[in-house]
């Protein structure tokens, strides 16, 4: 930001197959810049042990979820394994009006819908690929709470997810967490420096011209 | 870069009024990544003391400069204060074929021509603004070798140059050299991570799919 006017907030879309490191990247990004607002998804699936309403998800029954969609309250939504997931619109518009970025941890369907939404021109999308499928499977198996059946389902979904990699602006191969995060920070830093994301520059250059006149 | 195929080389265009820090940024960028190729400009102006042919400029007389332009050997060229300046095309194409970036230290006319050239889709342009005109003038006056008349001419040209700031992809206000350089590095790092600049990703994802098949 250069001047009084806040910069335009970004819609930062992060997608990857389960286990490729998306959630770790999201967490690191929020720790790096606490002004970034994380878009908490709404869902109709039941809370898992320890999941907090409004923190991990906004938990809804099917009727109230449908009502939100019908009233335009969702920026995007999709059905996955029989449950609905979506990104509430109001917090995103609030963040943008404050010049703050919103981070979306969504799958390719969510990414497509955000890009195609009315706010899509401020979307920046990043796809994270695993270094190999063997590594992806190892990371999924490391999550002790999931059954073999759940893991098999995730692997099938991973393949589907990866098939959409070419729809994203940026692609990172997550070989090493710190390197990948450094790349992600560079992307966010650079996107904030785009001319059209710095509306305050108009006033700044006007002041430079006033200074020229006064010489 | 992810794989065997080299990434697409960038045409990194750096413009700013004289004294805003463009040459310092260019030097720091080359030191940070020696694979970046600096585009040495061709000119018809006479060498200043200490200037080396092929290092600071390619010095030409008007006839040989015109012959180069006529044969398509210049990516861009323009007349400034009665002298011609231009960017030879061959070294840029050579660098791109090796997946290396080329750095252009050019004015707005050069920037426009590179963006509009056949290689323009790989151009990334950065404009550097001074924090104030007073500061810009101080920096120009600090260059002992220039007369008051030369400085006055530069200030007029600076105003003209600044009037083109909005044609650039990225804008940096150079308040503090290290901060500005960190931003510039982020821009170069991010632009290299764009999906369409990493042709090797196609093979990489094909290998991931082969691995899925083999499970």
Secondary-structure map:
2 copies of one chain form a homodimer.
Chain A (H helix, E strand, L loop, with lengths): L10 E5 L6 H11 L4 E2 L3 E2 L14 E2 L2 H9 L3 E7 L2 E6 L1 H8 L4 E4 L2 H9 L6 E7 L3 H9 L6 H15 L7 E4 L3 H16 L8 H14 L1
Parallel strand pairs in A: 1-7, 1-8, 2-7, 3-4, 8-9
Antiparallel strand pairs in A: 3-6, 5-6
Helix pairs in contact in A: 1-7, 5-6
Describe the model:
The structure is a homodimer of 215-residue chains. Chain A is an alpha/beta fold. Chain A has a domain at 11-39 and 100-214: P-loop containing nucleotide triphosphate hydrolases (Rossmann fold, 3-Layer(aba) Sandwich). In chain A, 42% of the residues lie in helices and 18% in strands. Chain A has 8 helices and 9 strands. In chain A, a hairpin with a 2-residue loop joins strand 5 (74-80) and strand 6 (83-88). The first copy, chain A, is globular, with a radius of gyration of 19 Å. The interface between A and B is large, with 39 and 39 residues. Chains A, B: Keywords: ATP-binding, Cytoplasm, Kinase, Nucleotide-binding, Transferase.
Could you write a compact summary of the structure shown?
The structure is a homodimer of 215-residue chains. The first copy, chain A, has helices at residues 22-32, 62-70, 90-97, 108-116, 133-141, 148-162, 177-192, 201-214, and strands spanning 11-15, 37-38, 42-43, 58-59, 74-80, 83-88, 102-105, 123-129, 170-173.
Largest interface in this structure: A-B, 39 and 39 residues
Q: What structural class results from the helix and strand content of chain A?
A: alpha/beta
Distance between the amino and carboxyl termini of chain A: 27 Å
Instruction: Estimate what percentage of residues of chain A fall within beta strands.
Output: 15-25%
CATH-derived topology of the domain at 11-39 and 100-214 in chain A: Rossmann fold
GO molecular function, one term (chains A, B): GMP kinase activity
InterPro entries (chains A, B): GK/Ca_channel_bsu, Guanylate_kin-like_dom, Guanylate_kinase, Guanylate_kinase_CS, P-loop_NTPase
Binding site for ATP (chains A, B): 16-23
Family (chains A, B): Belongs to the guanylate kinase family.
